[in-house]
Amino acid sequence: MLLHHPVELLGMLLAGLLVPLKQAAEVERALQRRVAMVGSSVLLAGPRNITLIRSVQWEHLSGTASHTILQYERHNLTIHMPYTARAHLHASNGSLLLEDLQESDSGVYRVTVNRAERESLTVLLDVLKPVSHPQLWSRGLVAKASGEVLCEVVEGRADIFTWKKDGQLLPPERSYHLSGSLSVLHLRVAKKSDCGSYSCNASNGISWQETSLNVTVAGDH
Predict the structure, then answer these.
(1) Where does the signal peptide begin and end (predicted)?
(2) Tell me: the pLDDT tens digits for 64-111?
């Protein structure tokens, strides 16, 4: 039986741990993340450090489906529907210009350059609408009872809601995010000190809006 010195064993264990960490880092570097606004254009870059490009293929991965956007090989370019009027290839570096973006364009994009060498890169694109001014209203604000202040965004998806009372940030645990458009601030036992000016800030990767509401608690304080 082959025995290893404790120091050798420690080195072997560390090496085994570093391999998956290195692989995870390589995957992270290969994945680009981009955010763009509806109606705008975005340039998705191809793999770097490629001196000679012989073929390029761009795909859009949405859910379990894969849609080929374009294929380029031997100076022949084929752009597939529904991208024919919106997709443009920079053959010198393999980058893709996508115009007139829609929310349905969100998803993962994969480019493969020089098929035999399988040089590929993955880009995560999130296409967003700007958020509208939040609408605020209160519900059930009676002394010694539970109540709520609600904040709703009608247009656009809000990824983050931030609440303030009289200009001071409220702890995140005071509220809960029901969806991409609604956040609820919970007042467990409404009291006089809960009266004041509440503001809700709704934001996503391209925009933010804030609205305030004066809140009063009815009943005997």
Answers:
(1) 1-24
(2) 888 999 999 988 999 999 999 999 999 889 999 999 999 999 999 999
CB 125 within 8 A of CB 106: yes
- Asked if domains 27-128 and 135-215 share a fold, the reply is yes
Least trusted range by pLDDT, from 12-16, 92-96, 120-124? 12-16
3-state secondary structure string across the chain = CCCCCHHHHHHHHHHHHHHHHHHHHHHHHHEEEEEEECCCCEEECCCCCCCCCCEEEEEEEECCEEEEEEEEECCEEEECCCCCCCEEEECCCCEEEECCCCHHHCEEEEEEECCCCCEEEEEEEEEECCCCCCEEEEECCECCCCEEEEEECCCCCCCEEEEEECCEECCHHHEEECCCCEEEEEECCCCHHHCEEEEEEEECCCCEEEEEEEECCECCC
pTM for this predicted structure: 0.72
